[in-house]
Amino acid sequence: MPSTESPAVDPIQATVTRLARPHRSGGSVIERAAILAEGRDSEAIFRWITDHAGEPEESTGTKAPDRGLYGARFGGATTAARSPQRYVLPPGTLSGR
């Protein structure tokens, strides 16, 4: 008799699938803010993304925001290193997408 039990679903993969959106590259993209909103699971999500060839999306601009007349005086002339805002997964990583 065939088993009626469904295959075990990885809860982290299910979360990644829920958070992911289509990306112009054909893969999927996940916002860093959405990952962090998952709380305790966020570290496991970052690890899952890395383990499945996901990479931080390249920042398109490096110009510091204009902060008015004294912007350069308050660090406006240089940009500090920031965490990536989005993570891109290659096409086919999430089955069913």
Structure description:
By secondary structure, this protein is an alpha+beta fold. The chain has a domain at 10-61 and 85-92. 25% of the residues lie in helices and 12% in strands. The chain has three helices and four strands; from the N terminus they run αββααββ. It has helices at residues 11-19, 32-36, 42-51; strands at residues 21-22, 28-31, 55-56, 86-89. A four-stranded antiparallel sheet has the order 1-2-4-3. The longest helix is centred in the middle third of the chain and has 10 residues, at 42-51. It starts with 10 loop residues before the first helix and ends in an 8-residue tail after the last strand. The model has no long low-confidence stretch (mean pLDDT 81).
Outline:
With 97 residues, the protein is of the alpha+beta class. The chain has three helices and four strands. The chain has a domain at 10-61 and 85-92.
Helix content: 10-25%
Distance between the termini: 31 Å
What is the count of helical runs?
3
What value does the average pLDDT take?
81
SS class: alpha+beta
Order of helices and strands: HEEHHEE
- Strand line-up of the largest beta sheet: 1-2-4-3
Major sheet attributes: 4 strands, antiparallel
Strand percent estimate: 5-15%
Strand elements, count: 4
Shape: elongated
Radius of gyration: 19 Å
Q: Quaternary state, please?
A: single chain
Low-confidence stretches: none
